[in-house]
Amino acid sequence: MEQGILLKILLMLLIAIAAIALLRRLGLPAILAYLLTGVVAGPGGFDWFSQHQMHSVAELGVVLLMFTLGLEFSVPKLWAMRRTVFGLGSAQVLVTTLLTMLIAMALGQQSVQALVIGSTIALSSTAIVLKLLNEQGWLRRRHGELSVSVLLFQDLAVVPLLILLPLLGEADGTLALHNVLFALLKGTVAFIALMAFGKWALPKVFDEVARSRSNELFVLSALVVALLTGAFTQWLGLSMALGAFMAGMLLGESQYRRQLEADIRPFRDLLMGLFFISIGMLLDFQLVMAYWWQILLVLLAVISGKALVVHGLLKLAGEPFRISSVSALILAQVGEFSFVVLALAVNYQLLEPEVSTVLVMVAVISMALAPTLVRHAVNISKWLQGLKPSVKDDPQLPRVEEGTELVLILGYGRVGQTIARFLKAEAVPFLALDLDPTRVQEAKRAGEPVYFGDACKRAILKQAGITHAKMIVLTFCESRAVDEVIHLCRTLAPTAKILVRTRDDRELKLLEQAGASQVIPETLEGSLMLVSQVLYQCGVPLTRILKRLEFERRNHYQYLHGFFSGTETDFTLELLHAVALPRGANAVGQRLGDIPWAKLRVELRAIRRGGEEFDNPSEDWQLRAGDVLILLGKPRRVEKAEALLLQGS
C-alpha cells in the first residue's frame, strides 16, 4: 500500500512538472499548473487523493506564505504610504465587498456566505501584479504606486479574515457581536505576546544562531519560529496563518530578513504548490461543464466590476482618466489569497461545492488573463479615450541618440556595479542591462541608467544602443550565454571593443575567436593583483611591476598555469612536476630537440643546473646528470614523460 501511495505521489509530481513547463512557455503563472494537477489527481480526475488528505500538508504552505508576506510587510513603508493605503485601499476593499455581498444576497445567498464571496472577489493578486509592474518598469509611476497601495491594504485585510472565518465556522454560520469582540481580544493578546517575544527574545535567538555559522540551524530555526507562532494562535482558537504573519512582520525589520526569506522560499514554494494542488482538487469538472455560462458571466462581472470600482474611486480622488483606468485594469483580477479564503471557507463548511467551484474557476481564469490586461493596460486606456494606441518594443529602454558613444554593461551584479561607479566618477556615459527585477528596481530608484532586458535578444541590444557603443562589457560568467552574446554583439557592433569577464582562462582562446577583444579571467587577475602588492611592498619599482603584469596578460597568463600537487590532486588540471636526472638516466647526454615534447604533450617550463634556473632553454641544450627539469602538463602525461626521461620507455 505504501508503494501505491508513493507511485501516486510520483505521478502527481510528474504531472505538475509537465504542466509548469507547458504553461511557463505560454507565459502563464505556475499557480495554474498546480491547479490543473489538482484537477487531474483529485476526485474529478484519477481520484488518487482527496482534498482532505492534502489539507494538513497544504496548510503548512499557507503558514509559510503568510510568514514571508509578514517579512515583506514594512511598517515604515506602510506609514509613508498611509494616505493611499488606508484611503484608496480600504475604500476599494469595502466597496467591492459590499457590492458583491448585495448581489450575492439578491441571488439567494445567506449573509455569511455573501461575506465570504465578497471578500474573495475583493482581493487581487499581489505576486502577479508586482512581477508585471517590475517587468513593465511601472513601480515608480503613479498608476504603479496606486496599485501597490491597494495591494498593501488587501494583504492587511487578510488578517481580520483569518480571525473571522474560524469564528464563523464554529458559530454554524451565525455571527454574534460578543463572539467577534472576544476573537478580536484574543487577536490583540496574541499580537502583544508575539510583539514582546519578537522584540526581546527573537533577536537574541537569531544572534546566537548566526554566530554558529550553520546554514542548517538557521533554516531549522526559521521554520520552527513560523510554525511555533502559528501553533500559538491556533491554540487561541485563531488560524495558524495569522500567527505566522505576525512573526514574519516582527522579523521583517531585523537584519536577518533577507536571509530568512531566502531560507524559507524553497519550503514555501513546495508547500504552496501542494496547497494549490489541493485547491484544484475542489474543482469538479461536471459542475464546471454544468455551470460554464454562469462562470463566464461571473468572470465578466468580476473583472469589469472591480475595474469600475477602482476607476470610480480614483476619479473621485481627482486622478486623471488614464491613471485611473490603467490602475483599474491592473487590479481587475482575483488573487492567490482568494484561494486561501476559499480553502478555509470550504474547510469550515461555509460555502456549497457549486459556489466554491464557480469562484475557483473565476479566480483561475482571471489570473490567466492578468498578464495580458496589465501589459496592454495603457493601450486599452487610450482606446477608451478614443486615442490611437502606441506600439513600443520595450517601454523601459531609452532611445539612444545618434552620435552618443557609451559603454554598454551587460550584467549589473557586483562586478557590473563596480565598473559603473568608476565610469560615473570619470563622467563616461554608460547603460546597463540586467535580468534581476529587484536589482533593476533598486538601481533605477537610485537614478542609475539600468534597465531590465535579456542580452541574448537582438531587439533589446538594438534598443539599448549597441550600434553606438564604443565598448561592451560582459560581466556574467555562464559560458553558453557568453558565447551567444559575443557573437550577437560582434554582429551588431563590429567595431566596438568587447571585454569579457570569466572565472578562469579555460575558454580564453575560444572566446577571442568568437569576437572578444579581451578576456579577463578574474581568478588569474586576482592573483596578479596580489602579486603586484607583494612586489610593491618588497620595494620593486612600480614601472617594473606594470611591465611584468602586461607581459603575463600578453602571453595569456602562461606563467600562472601549473601548480605543484599536494595530497588532494585534481587530475583535470595541469600540474608542475620536477624531474631530477640521476646518472644513467635515459635523457642524460641528449639534446632537448631530440626529445619528442609534442608527442608527450607536456611543456618544459625551465631547467635548474648548479642552483641556477634557466627559462626557455634552446633545443641545442645538452642534458647532464643532476639537471632538474620542471615539466607542465596533465598528471598522466607528466608521468609518461618522466618514464621516458628516466627509463627510455
From TrEMBL:
Membrane-spanning ranges: 6-23, 30-49, 55-73, 85-108, 114-134, 146-168, 180-202, 214-232, 268-285, 291-314, 326-346, 358-378
Membrane topology qualifier: Multi-pass membrane protein
Entries under Pfam families matching the protein: Na_H_Exchanger, TrkA_C, TrkA_N
Keywords from the UniProt entry: Antiport, Ion transport, Membrane, Potassium, Potassium transport, Transmembrane, Transmembrane helix, Transport
Domain of life where this protein originates: Bacteria
Boundaries of every RCK C-terminal domain copy: 563-647
Localization per record: Membrane
Domain RCK N-terminal: 404-521
Family stated for the protein in its record: Belongs to the monovalent cation:proton antiporter 2 (CPA2) transporter (TC 2.A.37) family.
NCBIfam families, per the entry: 2a37
Protein name (Swiss-Prot/TrEMBL): Cation:proton antiporter
Organism: Shewanella litorisediminis
Organism classification: Bacteria, Pseudomonadati, Pseudomonadota, Gammaproteobacteria, Alteromonadales
